[in-house]
Amino acid sequence: MRQTEQTFTTPAVWEPVYQLEIAAEPFEVELFQCAAVRRLKHLHHFGAGALIGPVTHSRYEHTVGVWALTKRWFPEWRELHAAAILHDVGHLPFSHSVEKALGQCHHALTEEVIRSAPVASILARHGLCASRLIELLNEDTPLSGQSDGIRIDHLDSFLRDTYGAGLYIRHPSDIIRGITFCGNRIAADDETALHICRAVAADNRIFAHPAYLAADEILSRAVLEQLKADGSTAASLDGLTDYQLLQLLESSSSAIVRDLTGVLTFEPHRIVIRPGGGGAYNAELRKIYNKQPLAGDRPVSDRLPEAKRLMSELEQLPRSCSFDILPAGR
After folding, report:
1. CA-to-CA distance for 134 and 115, rounded, in angstroms?
2. Residue range 42-76, pLDDT digits in tens
3. DSSP 57
4. HSE (CB half, 13 Å, CA atoms) of 1?
5. Measured between alpha carbons, how far is 183 from 40 in angstroms, rounded to an integer?
6. What backbone torsions phi and psi does residue 276 show, to the nearest 5 degrees?
7. Percentage of residues in the chain having pLDDT higher than 90
8. CA–CA separation, 264 and 216 (whole Å)
């Protein structure tokens, strides 16, 4: 029987989405077992939307997936394996949900965590350099990059999110077996590249849905009101888990904070989207992830009409929504 826990106490770890059994080196075990990485088990990858929808996996599960794929495709690149484990350690509670409202950048926070104990000490003990890993996370690599194309980090998000939502046609474990690399970018045969493109489109549609935008906006407002109520700064939230943040908000001295939090955790049916506008609240889409794989050495939208249509539709997604919150008891 496959070992299904991810405590890294067994010789190999089973990654269920991709159905991979991956052996971990001692430095990888230590990183996955340290508090900075374990904390990711308590951060929802999909942000506040996880409180109202079916996509509920954690940043830790995403990280294990990214690491497993990196090990599969680049088995000798130890630095990249370490970067895959650490690439998300700076995320705030509920991932991206409150990042913009607080003026925080998870990339900068990630660098702080990597430079600090115990992460830097673990790396040094195994002949790895914290500064070099930070450089790697800011370079164009198969793990991540700012230029066109899909890398491993975003690939896992697209496949894992749509798998969690039940919006896939081919299983992710089948899709990854058709993937190669062209330079640092993910490439595949036409059929596989099209399935990836469909996952990209489906994932964008989910987090652009007004209900999910409203959830992020409500959480952001609750957090900002809480900071005003207790006179603290955004930095006070660094290192918290989702559960710790919710506990802080639920026990707030502010009735506004308690009500907004209650809407998300117990009464999301009170959120009413106003398609024509005019609601008391407005929410904006943070960004569109209009990434696509290569089919051969060309973007798949250059080769396949359906892929071109899907990528074009992403640009037409609504970037904002208007909503109301019904009074309690309605």
Report:
1. 9
2. 999 999 999 999 999 999 999 999 999 999 999 99
3. -
4. 3
5. 30
6. -90, 5
7. 94
8. 9
